[in-house]
Amino acid sequence: MQAHLIALDWGTTSLRAYKLGRSGQVLDQRALASGIMQLPTTPRTIAGRPCGNGFELAFDDACGDWLAAEPHVPVIACGMVGSAQGWREAAYCPTPARVADLGASLQTVETLRGTVLHIVPGVIQHSRLPNVMRGEETQVLGLLCDLPADTRQDSLLIGLPGSHSKWVSLEEGCIQRFDTFMTGEVYAALCAHTILGRTQQPSAGFDEAAFIRGVQVALSPDGTLGLLSNLFSARTLGLTGQLAGTEQADYLSGLMIGHELHALAQACRERRGEVGLPQVVLIGSVALCQRYQIALRLCGFAQVGLAEQATERGLWSLAVAAGLLAPLPEEV
Amino acid sequence: MQAHLIALDWGTTSLRAYKLGRSGQVLDQRALASGIMQLPTTPRTIAGRPCGNGFELAFDDACGDWLAAEPHVPVIACGMVGSAQGWREAAYCPTPARVADLGASLQTVETLRGTVLHIVPGVIQHSRLPNVMRGEETQVLGLLCDLPADTRQDSLLIGLPGSHSKWVSLEEGCIQRFDTFMTGEVYAALCAHTILGRTQQPSAGFDEAAFIRGVQVALSPDGTLGLLSNLFSARTLGLTGQLAGTEQADYLSGLMIGHELHALAQACRERRGEVGLPQVVLIGSVALCQRYQIALRLCGFAQVGLAEQATERGLWSLAVAAGLLAPLPEEV
């Protein structure tokens, strides 16, 4: 089936490519490890020319064959590919940022193949401690495209778990404010590079009980000593035979996500006063969203939903708004 | 001058050796990188026998020449050398632990050279989240040996900053309770293995202003979102030109120590009620204690002192109590 758009979700550690059909439906997709911090390095010939540029190589891996078959399909990308360390910097748009309008600020780079890559800008919040996002703004838009028209956006909190999880508040189609937690990246560093990882053993699957135990410690009176102190319990509960090696990774995950969400819930209560905790919609990998769903409920968030295909939908919507798609003669 | 005791402070990443004279004064000392997790691996001959045991090799590096000159000097060690991953496990003593009595529970291992190494046990607190220490109990004893007799121990909080900082409360010569914070080890992992390290640049020395700024963020309303969120500001303040690369490491250090001490101060207030914050005495490296002194004052701890040579004094005191020292004929 004919491709109408190639959409790339190009982050720090991964690159996902989608071939989208006439109405934005996914015709084909692939996932590569060629994030901007781990680009390919082996030179080869692309479009008849020798090439050693990692961005070109990764781009060609992601969609070179699709473009060879259909050279005039437009291409759009979001994520860290637009950062200062990316292929070309797409300046941040400040909050309040109307996500549907981001298509008016696309950055471009011409690739070796002659195709122009359009890059979505990120969003910056100039708070006392600034916050930035790249890629999540597109997912938020994808979610908005799917929301029933009568949804009260200001009673919604959008959660995007990941290496750096984002929590986004909206108002009338604008990203009004957001917070970042480095939970995922710190978790990975602790498991790989501290004493906590040494006694962890692989478990058969997600150990929900160990995870919940970690969340509950974060919410308990012991949690008030903070994460830097609670972390040590992953070791000492192991030392004293109260936490098996196979339980330690999920316990630690629960401890960290629990601290993230406990702080988030407190901030929501302060900001919203008597209205209580907002409805949450999560966007992210199924496995990670499962953890966050469990922990959110333990933290008192009563309504938690999941959004799917938010990136593809958001990129499609921005490409349409930017006029990248060829008009469809059949639809005249 | 004749040695009366060889005292080893043998931790995870370092090994310090002290040759002590008749009244416990330091005659010679050396510092090696041969902690129990980075023991030497090149076999060689020790006391006429081939040896590939890392503990033996490190022990010989630390004090082999001292023992060759004076073979009958007793040797005592504290720290992770007595852990399950150490040379020989010295079982933990539970709290409340009378530190002066720990000499009655020394573990022993006979070395290749024929010298018996005496190992001080650690202390365990069987709280809901257990806590353990190895080495710090000896430093606490060293501090106690130096305290004026009329000191009110129960109004004292002993801080031992390090990879895992410990905060110890005493009562009548006993370790009554203690808390652990993994601040140092987590800081090292974040600098070396997360995005936060990528934009850090070496600074000419300790940047006190950047450090204080980090502490103040932890104590500010922004601090209530927790460390996992605040961490990201080390990146975004850099991105927005508000924090130079050379300031980022000390800012991060202030942020983390600030979160540790803010939580500690809250716990002290809860435990002590109206009495207010306790007097603090710090034991540790000069550079790290300087940071903690600054941050403690910002957190409201009004009285902060430093203790020196606590390890040597503690090991000496335990060796005396255990009867390891030969009687001194001149003193009859």
TrEMBL record, chains A, B:
Protein name per Swiss-Prot or TrEMBL: 2-dehydro-3-deoxygalactonokinase
GO annotation, biological process: D-galactonate catabolic process
Species this protein is from: Pseudomonas eucalypticola
A Pfam family this chain is assigned to: DGOK
Highest taxon of source: Bacteria
Q: Which keywords does this Swiss-Prot/TrEMBL entry list?
A: Kinase, Transferase
Gene Ontology MF: a single term: 2-dehydro-3-deoxygalactonokinase activity
Q: What is the lineage of its organism?
A: Bacteria, Pseudomonadati, Pseudomonadota, Gammaproteobacteria, Pseudomonadales
